Fold this protein.
Amino acid sequence: MKEKHMDNCIFCKIATGAIPSDKVFENDEILAFRDIHPAAPVHVLIIPKQHIANLSECDDSHAGLLGRMLALVPKLAVQEACDIQSDSEGNLSGGYKTLINSGPDSRQEVYHLHVHMIGGSRPWRENI
Ligand code: DGP
């Protein structure tokens, strides 16, 4: 059985409250907080409270948790005012990018699974 929290993991410390964060959502299994280096006006990280390094550590048993993390994205988009809007002529505006880095080739920096939710008015950082 895997450890629930890892002593040397910064996002485990954020999950337990040992390191402060700007929280936008929290329940028993998931925390969402603002990225310390935002790439856009809205940049939220959604993490499981239990330590999972990345998607490569996930299997079918994580499907429920992963689904709930992704299902949180549209709710946060409404909360953070970057959801998709449609005007009276059907023209769309708004929207957001969701991103999960896994491993060195993805340039994953923090080895605790997280979904980036990035949105808000452009410009955004170029290399996102
Ligand atoms: P990634 O490259 O996918 O592993 O992105 C990690 C993100 O985590 C990066 O955008 C910066 C953010 N980050 C790193 N340390 C902290 C921290 O201590 N607090 C917060 N809020 N964000 C952090």
Observations:
- The two ends are 35 Å apart (CA to CA).
- The longest strand covers residues 42-48.
- The chain has a mean pLDDT of 96.
- The pocket of 2'-deoxyguanosine-5'-monophosphate is lined by residues 10, 21, 33-37, 45, 101, 107-110 (CB under 6 Å).
